[in-house]
Write a structure and sequence with these properties.
- There is one protein chain.
- The chain has 150 residues and is α/β, with parallel strands linked by helices.
- It has one domain: D-tyrosyl-tRNA(Tyr) deacylase (D-tyrosyl-trna(Tyr) Deacylase, Chain: A, 3-Layer(bba) Sandwich).
- The chain is 24% helix and 38% strand.
- It has three helices and eight strands, in the order βββαββαβαββ.
- Strands 1, 2, 3, 6, 7 and 8 form a six-stranded mixed β-sheet that branches. Strands 4-5 form a two-stranded antiparallel ribbon.
- Helix 1 crosses helix 3.
């Protein structure tokens, strides 16, 4: 699994000009599922993100996690994180999971976060044309990959 994680003051996602997910202080997570991802990848990512110490403490050091600051999550599915642009001019998506698997893992990821950590999790709509707005805090942006390739 791959994720782009952004620390935000607020974020929202709209579909057909209707807000379908909105958070205040927290993390905006763009989540991509690879065709070879499994339960181990899912659990790794679901445990890594809420525990990342990327919020500042009283000494302005990134020393607190989403859980420490009582933050919220907005999770948006994004298969384009598996776009391979090494050859040619158009990305190849052969490494992205098929939609059925990706949707199942995306939904499971969100449920794990809600149940295990009791945090507010908002979502986009899988495979919809979404418009995402945010106020990046820092900016702080992290790239995560469960297979450890970067």
């Amino acid at each position: 699994m791959r994720a782009v994680v952004q620390r935000v003051k607020w974020a929202k996602v709209e579909v057909e000009e209707k807000v379908v997910g909105r958070i205040e202080k927290g993390l905006l997570v763009f989540l991509g599922v690879g065709k070879n991802d499994d339960q181990k990848d899912l659990e790794w990512m679901a445990n890594k993100i809420p525990n990342l110490r990327i919020f500042e403490d009283e000494n302005e050091k990134m020393n607190k996690s989403l859980l420490d600051v009582g933050g919220q999550l907005l999770v948006v599915s994004q298969f384009t994180l598996y776009g391979d642009c090494r050859k040619g001019r158009r990305p190849s998506f052969t490494f992205a999971a098929e939609p059925k698997k990706a949707k199942e893992m995306y939904e499971t990821f969100c449920e794990i976060l809600k149940k295990k950590y009791s945090i507010r999790v908002e979502k986009g709509i899988f495979q919809a044309d979404m418009k995402v707005s945010l106020l990046n805090d820092g900016p702080v942006t992290m790239l995560l990959e469960s297979k450890g390739t970067f």
